[in-house]
Design a protein that fits this description.
It is built from seven helices and seven strands. It is α/β, with parallel strands linked by helices.
């Protein structure tokens, strides 16, 4: 059994990650999913879809921006499954405005989820993986972790920060057999794009494109580590 915890599972890439893991169930791979999101209705719908593939899926309504919810997620994982084999740090948000118009509320909203919550959940799960000398942590970051974009000041900062965490964590992971993977997608057709998604859809990837690559990376033999994946639409960045 592989226990896989996915944050931001209710929509977009997270939702398709859960479904792709479920579809890949086989005699050699039996996933058990812990689906985390702020919206119960999204999780309940996804849970039923996973059950249709005969895959066990538990839900945890939580907001990783709130540190008390980090402990709630960890407790839920241990009580239901006893461990976490794979953490997928997928939850992420963005506020896209001119850098001179961004507010403290925009800053706190973005950083509390993309950096603060991601860091402390990773810390909580990695401690157990380190002790077991086994596990895989996957970060869904962005090409904005390497390439600056206008109208994305705080978002780019948070993604650069996530990449820094990935690279430091990998130093620890190599010492205890824990794989660390950074997935950096370009533009993906998800709700985060709002109305702009309709305008640019023809130049975007779909969430399932990213999900297939992530699951393939997880299913590699434990002796290998897919450390970094960059995906872009064939036409390049928007």
């Amino acid at each position: 059994m592989s226990v896989i915890l996915i944050t931001g599972a209710g929509k977009g890439i997270g939702r398709h990650l859960a479904l792709e893991f479920a579809k890949c169930k086989s005699p050699d791979f039996e996933p058990q999913l812990l689906l985390v999101s702020r919206t119960r209705s999204d999780l309940e719908t996804l849970q039923q879809e996973c059950h249709a593939h005969q895959v066990e899926a538990e839900i945890c309504v939580a907001d990783i921006a709130q540190l008390e919810h980090i402990e709630k997620i960890y407790t839920c994982a241990l009580q239901r499954f006893g461990k976490v084999d794979c953490l997928v740090n997928n939850a992420g948000v963005g506020r896209f405005k001119d850098i001179l118009e961004l507010t403290e509320e925009d800053f706190d909203y973005t950083i509390n989820i993309n950096l603060k919550g991601t860091f402390f959940l990773t810390q909580r799960i990695f401690r157990d993986m380190q002790q077991r000398r086994s596990g895989h942590i996957i970060f869904i970051t962005s090409v904005a972790a390497e390439v600056p974009f206008e109208q994305s000041g705080i978002y780019c900062m948070s993604k650069f920060g996530q990449k820094g965490l990935v690279e430091v964590l990998r130093l620890y992971g190599r010492k205890c057999n824990v794989r660390i993977t950074n997935v950096m997608p370009g533009a993906v057709y998800t709700p985060m794009w709002g109305e702009a998604a309709q305008t640019f859809q023809s130049r975007m990837m779909m969430p399932e494109d990213v999900a297939k690559i992530v699951v393939a990376a997880y299913l590699q033999p434990e002796r290998t580590s897919v450390e970094e994946i960059v995906l872009r639409p064939i036409a390049g960045d928007l």
